[in-house]
């Protein structure tokens, strides 16, 4: 994308207010909402200021619908050209996304001395300035290339007439048969494919981080809201995160997650997300889907609204539209009206009809209402608690740490077998602690009943529930001093030898065994 030149940063704004259109469902038009064309141009001026431009004038036209050729009428285009020349404006900013055809025609009408930008391209430039993480830069570059791809026509016009084939075409334009425009488009498409692959790696890393957070079991609260509603200020006020705070649109893009301790003693994860805006480019919503996927794991959406803004109701609608596109509009929501310390610019904003989320009024700058906000978050998380006693072995000491972080520990004793703990923790952690119950104490023995011992006998011991055991009588003392001789042991009888197989066969056949041959004795000498 282009870089704003230093020599001329003056900008002129152009907008369109749509007339009411009668349909089968009634009248539709911008005048039926709290968001007028003047409010939209004021927001466009703040976007220009964030990008480093200085607004020198603005104009708008009331139309049934934007002109398909030049967005505004031909007479208004001539008026804008004269105003830009009179104000010495180097930029003309349009308050909507222009089609490639509208952009080409307006560039011809306004002349080469004026740079033309629509709302989408301006937001993309702001995102490219404020993205610092690798993920944010990849997302912005992907959105920029997808925006640029259909608008390559008209660039490199001097190289767009090459023809292929030997001897085909006039002198000076003979080439390989492929225009520079086609080469540029192929290069952009390849870059888009590579960015998608790299973002898929980022999503994989985010899934691993999400699985790691799920193992801790800490619930997540996601901060959502319109840009410049004060999300970063509230994150700093509650957690001391030290995130950059500026009175500009989209001053922070990279998501931040911090721990937040609630009044009950348990802890949650508070996640700051990218701010939303009206007419948010679809390319940005698609590119930042990896970042916005973090809202999926949130148990509670903390929707922050600028109470001092006259169009706060329209800002709520814009945020809920994006939440509906992501598919998380059915999550529990807490509506926090921020900046109550500032004077309202108009009538107090009201929440649009539909649904009834809890509400609280706060000021992130002065700290008013933050105690009530934490109490409501604590109540809406809705994780029931249980009190358990366990003897956690030292191999599972992680459970002791989680008990201190996510609950309240009443008693703790380090023993040789492990850590004996009594704590009030969420149900999911209580189930893990119940796997290590305390050992059962042995019942104490009852006192034995004594009875008078007979002469020459030891008194018998009697236990509760068991018959008394008889004690062996001691042998009387021998008069003979020599010990009695033990009887000699008789040798064990030898086992009979088994007859051989041949003898068993002859016996079965009835053959008498042959007499054993007599051993001849050698004559004595």
Task: Characterize the structure shown.
It is a single chain. With 525 residues, the chain is an alpha/beta fold. Helix content is 33%, strand content 17%. It is built from 14 helices and 15 strands. The strands form four sheets. Strands 8-9-7-10-11-12 form a six-stranded mixed β-sheet, sandwiched between helices. It has a four-stranded parallel β-sheet with strand order 4-1-5-6, with helices on both faces. The chain has a three-stranded antiparallel β-sheet with strand order 13-15-14.
Strand order of the largest sheet: 8-9-7-10-11-12
Specify Rg, calculated over alpha carbons: 45 Å
Measured as a percent range, the helix fraction is: 25-40%
Mean pLDDT: 77
Can you tell me the overall shape? elongated
What is the element layout, followed by pairings?
Blueprint: E1 10-18, E2 21-23, E3 26-28, H1 37-50, E4 54-63, H2 74-86, E5 91-94, H3 100-110, E6 115-118, H4 119-130, H5 134-148, H6 180-216, E7 220-225, H7 231-239, E8 256-261, E9 267-272, H8 282-287, H9 289-292, E10 300-306, H10 312-326, E11 333-338, E12 358-361, H11 370-381, E13 385-392, H12 398-406, E14 408-414, E15 419-426, H13 427-433, H14 501-509
Parallel strand pairs: 1-4, 1-5, 5-6, 7-9, 7-10, 10-11, 11-12
Antiparallel strand pairs: 2-3, 8-9, 13-15, 14-15
Helix pairs in contact: 1-4, 4-5, 5-6
């Amino acid at each position: 994308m282009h870089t704003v030149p230093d020599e001329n940063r003056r900008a002129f704004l152009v907008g369109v207010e749509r007339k009411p259109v009668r349909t089968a469902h009634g009248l539709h038009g911008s005048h039926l909402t709290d968001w007028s064309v003047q409010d939209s141009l004021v927001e466009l001026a703040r976007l220009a200021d964030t990008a480093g431009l200085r607004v020198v004038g603005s104009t708008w036209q009331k139309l049934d619908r934007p002109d398909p050729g030049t967005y505004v009428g031909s007479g208004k285009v001539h008026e804008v050209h004269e105003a830009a020349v009179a104000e010495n404006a180097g930029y003309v900013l349009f308050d909507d996304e222009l089609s490639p055809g509208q952009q080409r025609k307006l560039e011809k009408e306004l002349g080469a001395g004026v740079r033309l930008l629509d709302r989408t391209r301006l937001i993309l430039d702001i995102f490219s300035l404020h993205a610092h993480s690798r993920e944010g830069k990849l997302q912005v570059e992907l959105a920029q290339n997808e925006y640029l791809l259909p608008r390559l026509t008209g660039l490199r016009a001097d190289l767009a007439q090459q023809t292929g084939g030997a001897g085909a075409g006039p002198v000076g334009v003979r080439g390989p048969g492929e225009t520079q425009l086609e080469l540029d488009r192929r290069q952009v498409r390849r870059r888009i494919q590579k960015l998608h692959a790299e973002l898929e790696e980022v999503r994989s890393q985010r899934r691993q981080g999400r699985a790691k957070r799920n193992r801790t079991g800490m619930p997540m609260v996601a901060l959502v809201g319109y840009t410049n509603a004060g999300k970063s200020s509230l994150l700093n006020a509650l957690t001391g995160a030290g995130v950059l705070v500026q009175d500009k649109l989209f001053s922070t893009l990279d998501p931040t997650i911090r721990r937040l301790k609630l009044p009950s003693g348990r802890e949650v994860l508070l996640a700051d997300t990218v701010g939303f805006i009206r007419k948010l480019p679809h390319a940005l919503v698609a590119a930042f889907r990896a970042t916005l996927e973090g809202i999926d794991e949130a148990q509670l959406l903390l929707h922050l609204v600028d109470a001092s803004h006259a169009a706060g109701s329209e800002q709520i609608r814009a945020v809920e539209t994006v939440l509906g596109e992501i598919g998380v509009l059915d999550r529990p929501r807490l509506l926090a009206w921020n900046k109550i310390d500032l004077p309202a610019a108009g009538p107090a904003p009201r929440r649009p009809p539909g649904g009834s989320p809890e509400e609280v009024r706060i000021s992130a700058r002065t700290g008013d209402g933050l105690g009530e906000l934490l109490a409501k978050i604590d109540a809406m998380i809705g994780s029931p608690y249980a009190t358990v006693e366990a003897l956690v072995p030292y191999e599972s000491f992680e459970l002791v740490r989680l008990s201190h972080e996510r609950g309240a520990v009443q008693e703790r004793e380090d023993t040789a077998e492990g850590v004996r703990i009594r704590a009030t923790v969420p149900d999911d952690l209580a189930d893990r602690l119940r796997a290590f119950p305390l050992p059962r104490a042995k019942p104490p023995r009852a006192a034995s009943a004594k009875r008078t011992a007979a002469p020459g006998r030891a008194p018998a011991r009697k236990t509760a529930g068991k018959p008394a055991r008889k004690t062996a009588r001691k042998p009387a003392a021998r008069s003979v001093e020599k010990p009695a001789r033990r009887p000699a042991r008789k040798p064990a009888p030898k086992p009979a030898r088994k007859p051989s197989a041949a003898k068993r066969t002859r016996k079965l056949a009835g053959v008498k065994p042959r007499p054993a041959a007599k051993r001849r004795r050698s004559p004595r000498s």
